[in-house]
């Protein structure tokens, strides 16, 4: 599964307003196939290329304020994706242990 996290092109008025619940509350309604898809998801290729470009410019101190803000937004979204992937893996592991698989 490829995830397009195109959140940086628009501002979110409720940024940080929604907090993720516990792992069980968040992911128990998903099927194993959905959990596997989440656990194996990646950033959309175009966004990954853009992120790499921003990171390279940042390393060379070539980012203006807008570029810096965009980089921070993309990195925050990557962090969120990592959290969801981790929760999916955790849920799969918990379900496997509960069923003795």
Fraction of helical residues: 55-70%
Number of helical stretches of at least 4 residues: 4
- Please state the average pLDDT score: 82
- Estimated structural class: mainly alpha
Strand content: under 5%
Topology:
Layout: E1 2-3, H1 23-27, H2 32-39, E2 42-43, H3 45-59, H4 65-99
Parallel strand pairs: 1-2
Helix pairs in contact: 2-4, 3-4
Could you walk me through the main structural features you see in this protein, from its secondary elements to its overall organization?
The protein is mainly α and 101 residues long. Helices cover 62% and strands 4% of the residues. It is built from four helices and two strands; from the N terminus they run βααβαα. The chain has helices spanning 23-27, 32-39, 45-59, 65-99; strands at residues 2-3, 42-43. The protein has a two-stranded parallel sheet. The longest helix has 35 residues, at 65-99.
Keywords:
two-stranded parallel ribbon; mainly alpha; 4 helices; 101 residues; elongated
């Amino acid at each position: 599964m490829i995830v397009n996290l195109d959140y940086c092109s628009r501002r979110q008025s409720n940024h940080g307003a929604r907090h993720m619940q516990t792992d069980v509350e968040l992911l128990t309604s998903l099927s194993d196939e959905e959990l596997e898809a989440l656990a194996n998801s990646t950033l959309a290729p175009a966004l990954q290329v853009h992120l790499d470009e921003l990171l390279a410019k940042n390393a060379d101190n070539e980012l203006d304020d807008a570029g810096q803000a965009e980089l921070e937004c993309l990195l925050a979204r990557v962090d969120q994706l990592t959290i969801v992937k981790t929760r999916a893996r955790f849920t799969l592991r918990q379900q496997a242990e509960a069923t003795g698989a």
